[in-house]
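The instructor's notes for this session suggest beginning with a concrete chain rather than abstract definitions. Hand out the sequence below and ask the class to guess, before any prediction is shown, which regions might be ordered.
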Amino acid sequence: MRKSRNSFMSRAIRSCITLIASALTMLPTQARAQECPPFESMELLEPLPEPVTNNAVCSGYSNGKPFIYSFGGIDTSKSHDGIHLKSWRYNIEDGVWESLPDLPDTLGKIASGASYMNGIIYIVGGYHVLANGSEISSRLVHRFDCETSQYLSNASDLPVAIDDHVQSVWRDSLLIALTGWSNNNNVAWLQAYNPKNDTWISSLQLWDFPKFNSFGASGTIVGDTLYYFGGAASTAGFPIQPYLREGIINPNDVSNISWSLASVDAQHALYRSTAINIDGVPTWIGGGANTYNYDGIAYDGTGGVEPSSNLIQWEDDSMFVNNCIGAPVDLRGSAWFPERGELYIVGGMGAAQQVSPGLIRFNISTLALPELRGTDITIFPNPARDRIWVEAETTVRVEVYGVDGGLYRTETILGKQEIEIRPGINLLRVHQESNVTQRIVIGQ
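After discussion, reveal the predicted structure:
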């Protein structure tokens, strides 16, 4: 029970991130007026229908169009009876929020994770809070069909109930849920879901438990390497964990991971931040520098937890900290569109633990490449099944990225050549002499 937790009483960023903004007085965190290279400001878009925090958020696609999805969470009451099952999606192109059917569960739920794979969003775990304060971790895995905007039957239950866990997708084929809280304690389980046969692989990882076991950590996968950072220990007071964990996945056995750990300055640790892969660099945004319960009040009795200004990147076994950006605390994911160079943060808590309806867009300019138009390069068909043809009159290098930002294929082409693609969204980045352009290809 999480109530027992209370009883314990770079360089600037290598990829230039620019925050474009308006309506600064409405921001859930205070916008910074002074220059803060490479950041300029924030842009607040159409707010959610109502404020929400601790909601599971991810990007997704319907008929090839990008959407932002939010599932469950807690309202401005920040109390057990404010935890709900409400769900929404946001049409990026039209700028409109739409209500979706509630999560198919019996009680409101927070601290779930959401991941998109091949047209389906998987909403994993989370926990319920009863009227008497008891908390129950969930084993349920909801499946949401982005094409029909309806829930399918639930996937197979998690082997181990989990919440506040690390969640990411490996090679667009397996969903990985790692560590987190399970009813009474942090756990050391890695749980990997294969949607093709609706089965879970579970493996007890033999870690250095106090440092690797965590709730409220966040992470991402770059290639075959899983990174997760921060979170809370399950010792007295639930102290924040100033550790960056790196796990190299064995492609032949996903449960076989070679782990390493780096200690960092404690003032840079984060709790309930969001993690994304930017051009092969794991990056953490938002969150707080102390651990807290779902009401935003610190477990150690020091009062409300404010948003951290740190943005963290890990590269070449070194941590780079930009401490001039404000983003909310209490994030359970974000909507990252690498093919557009856009990151969206949905809801969360701002200053003074105020629950926000905000939708913040971060433009990441190095990934916002020009479209492949007016060139001597032809790509067809689109959409395509399994393979496409690329024709080039001069030598080009073609890189194929998945929706998670991972690089999956590189080809050097002169003339006409066939390239294999994956189901869903594929981003083709084409290097031609000094120019770089891109094309989105839909795999069917």
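Then share the key points. The domain at 377-443 is CATH 2.60.40 (Immunoglobulin-like). The chain is about 0% helix and 45% strand.
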